[in-house]
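Key result, reporting period 2: structure in, sequence out.
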């Protein structure tokens, strides 16, 4: 673990907590030093208390870690939170106040004005809110940074390259995987041979988070939201991983379909972010096949960090319509939090930790292939 930063994972036994464990295995900058769970798990080895639902078992070292309770002191300066909203409300602010950098998946603080709602390729400049956050709250080393709802991810990633065309209206219809409901999630008798046309709170989150993330940072430490109208309808479908969103959009400059497709194909991630360990080579990729993207075939694009887009065509109501797909527990949850932390580390927001320069890394330490 030499030269790596130890991190803590809150909610480590849950579905997203397990994804953190999996994605951080072999990470070139970070390693899992502390795992935090419920009072039922506290004091016992992680391997005994976790009901592992992913494909690969955690390493022996991880399995032997003692699970800490939420009330225990954490030594790690960087904390990843996979807590439910209620628990997050109780512990995330106190952790940041005591000097920890907290990267959270919870919805508890996403709309707080001085908390960045961050997706680096889309709005890396919003990270400067941490400077205002620390000044206003008198935090010297602590910080709180959030990532969005998992269904918002494919929306903002697919719309970011279209901002120059002038986005006026957005209509979104989601087809959300069952893993988005956590574990044990949706009962089998409710989801097998069925579609549930209701996902609690997600419609409101998609409509508001999209506008905040696509907005611009002002000089006074606020985000001016994108001025567009939004509408969302959310549905749970019998797919394990991968959130699909059917999007219709009105664009002020009325580009041709070829120009829209070119905007996706030519979108370039800033080199600062592209060089981070978890960043995919392409934030978005467009597939020309008539029946793509598909969850089983495309959710792991860019090791789960790329949003796949397809079926671009004219819309008689708004002008343009297409389909976007993201892996909900990787890009939509743990993977985005890790990328957020990498960006914070590279910009010096994690006191006492200087990540290895990209030019000094070996090719085999990369999380994604070039």
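The corresponding designed sequence is given below.
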């Amino acid at each position: 673990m030499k030269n790596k930063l130890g991190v803590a994972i809150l909610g480590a036994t849950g579905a997203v907590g397990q994804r953190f464990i999996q994605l951080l295995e072999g990470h070139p900058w970070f390693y899992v030093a502390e795992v935090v769970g419920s009072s039922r798990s506290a004091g016992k080895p992680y391997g005994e208390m976790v009901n592992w639902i992913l494909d690969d078992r955690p390493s022996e070292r991880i399995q032997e870690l003692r699970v800490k309770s939420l009330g225990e002191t954490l030594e790690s300066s960087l904390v990843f939170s996979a807590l439910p909203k209620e628990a997050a409300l109780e512990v995330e602010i106190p952790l940041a106040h005591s000097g920890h950098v907290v990267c959270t998946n919870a919805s508890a603080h996403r709309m707080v004005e001085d908390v960045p709602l961050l997706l680096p390729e889309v709005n890396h400049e919003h990270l400067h809110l941490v400077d205002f956050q620390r000044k206003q709250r008198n935090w010297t080393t602590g910080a709180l940074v959030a990532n969005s709802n998992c269904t918002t991810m494919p929306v903002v990633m697919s719309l970011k390259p279209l901002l120059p065309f002038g986005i006026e209206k957005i209509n979104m219809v989601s087809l959300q995987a069952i893993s988005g409901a956590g574990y044990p999630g949706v009962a089998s008798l409710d989801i097998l041979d069925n579609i549930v046309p209701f996902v609690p709170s997600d419609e409101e989150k998609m409509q508001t988070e999209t506008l905040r993330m696509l907005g611009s940072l002002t000089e006074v430490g606020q985000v001016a939201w994108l001025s567009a109208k939004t509408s969302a309808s959310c549905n749970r479908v019998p797919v394990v991983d991968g959130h699909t969103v059917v999007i219709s959009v009105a664009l002020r400059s009325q580009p041709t379909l070829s120009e829209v497709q070119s905007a996706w194909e030519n979108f370039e991630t800033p080199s600062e972010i592209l060089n981070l360990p978890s960043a995919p080579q392409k934030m978005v990729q467009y597939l020309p096949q008539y029946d793509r993207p598909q969850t089983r075939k495309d959710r792991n694009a860019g090791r789960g960090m790329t949003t796949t887009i397809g079926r671009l065509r004219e819309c008689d109501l708004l002008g343009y319509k297409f389909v976007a797909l993201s892996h909900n527990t990787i890009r939509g949850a743990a993977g985005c939090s890790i990328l957020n932390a990498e960006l914070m580390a590279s910009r010096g927001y994690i006191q006492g930790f200087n990540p290895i320069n990209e030019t000094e890394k070996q090719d085999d330490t990369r999380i994604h292939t070039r």
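The CA atoms of residues 167 and 251 lie 5 Å apart. Confidence is low (pLDDT under 50) at residues 357-370. This case is discussed further under Risks and Mitigation.
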